[in-house]
Design the sequence.
């Protein structure tokens, strides 16, 4: 969807960095695992009890196709941009969100990755500020990019905090 004149989510002069498509692979793998489990249960019930449970298998397949498409769209909506004094994070397709985190407000930066994340080479960067309501998260970065961003944000945060 194109930005309109005066769109609050359109920031002039900002080049957005997308997150890794590896996050889509992680989420789609989880989707396929849950669909396989639901389809197996529905198929077993249909075999032993009633043919109506085959509708559960059909429903699982339809929901999987829809969610497969939706995951790709959600991943493409994520982006972040480093500016001189703050970090911008945007996400959302239907319910859009733009978060601006001043470097001087950052207290610490976490990098997290679960087993499936590590298998696909992605990590999540969590920014913590003085107010819990303004914490921000960037999911699905390539692991080297997550480490680079963590170090860069931590050093910028220290520099801005020291200037107070």
Sequence:
């Amino acid at each position: 969807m194109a930005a309109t004149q005066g769109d609050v989510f359109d920031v002039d002069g900002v080049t957005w960095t997308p997150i890794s498509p590896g996050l889509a692979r992680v989420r789609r793998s989880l989707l396929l695992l849950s669909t396989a489990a639901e389809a197996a249960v529905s198929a077993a019930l249909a075999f032993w009890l009633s043919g109506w449970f085959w509708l559960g298998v059909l429903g699982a397949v339809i929901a999987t196709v829809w969610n497969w498409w939706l995951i790709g769209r959600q991943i493409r909506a994520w982006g972040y941009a480093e500016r001189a004094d703050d970090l911008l994070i945007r996400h959302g397709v239907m319910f859009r969100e733009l978060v601006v985190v001043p470097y001087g407000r950052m207290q610490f930066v976490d990098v997290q990755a679960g087993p499936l994340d590590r298998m696909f080479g992605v990590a999540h960067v969590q920014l913590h500020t003085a107010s819990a309501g303004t914490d921000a998260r960037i999911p699905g970065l390539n692991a080297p990019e997550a480490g680079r961003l963590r170090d860069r944000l931590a050093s910028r945060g220290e520099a801005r905090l020291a200037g107070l």
Observations:
- The radius of gyration is 20 Å.
- DSSP finds four helices and seven strands in the chain.
- Residues 22-48 form the longest helix (27 residues).
- The first strand starts at residue 17 and ends at 18.
